[in-house]
Amino acid sequence: MVTQRPQRSPKLDKKQVVETALRLLNETGLDGLTLRAIAKELNVQAPALYWHFKNKQELLDEMATEMYRRMVEDATATPGGWRERLLAANRGLRAALLSYRDGAKVFSGSRFTGTLHAVEMERTLRLFTESGFTLTQAVRATSTTYVYTIGFVTEEQGVQPLPGERREGYDLDERARRMADFPLSAAAGAEIFGDYERNFEEGLHLVVAGIEARYGIG
User: Fold this and answer.
1) CA distance linking residue 42 with residue 36, whole number of Å
2) Cα(24)–Cα(71) distance, rounded to whole angstroms?
3) Across 192-206, average pLDDT
4) pTM for this predicted structure
5) Of 115, 116, 157, 191, which has the highest C-beta tally within 10 A?
6) Which three-class secondary structure string do you get for 40-93?
């Protein structure tokens, strides 16, 4: 028996699918983002999407690539050395991820399509190696800060899915009352779940300072 491939929809292209998926992501979150929901939004049958994406992971890869593409388009040139590059790049990454519900989860583990990301990667690695890092050290430094940012935003969006939103169960006063028998842990809630902007900056500077101390590059 020959399995017939679904007919291509003449009004559907890959860019439309990705843009619709990113828009729906803010409404449903990653768990609610299904190919069926995207197809319904586009007024096509779900099998029509398989002309462009074999599965949901392929779609997520393209969504992450589009998120990166938009982030790069919005970025401004960063003067200075390797520290300034790390700080600016990871601040920009966090801002981009926060623009989408579950943005960090979409980005994490996805594989970029194409080679657009290699342009900035090459520039960054060249800056680092010209500053005295070996290639291995440069990769370790940049990947460590990247993983820090992805992890931080994943946790941040677990509490605040989008700016201005806060999930139930993360009221700091209620938490402090519930943990009254553990005064240090109770007080720590304000540091853990409070000012995410300040917390991110402090953590990012800790990572950068650690890189400098570890490799002895000023």
Assistant:
1) 10
2) 19
3) 95
4) 0.87
5) 157
6) HHHCCCHHHHHHCCCCHHHHHHHHHHHHHHHHHHHCCCCCCCHHHHHHHHHHHH
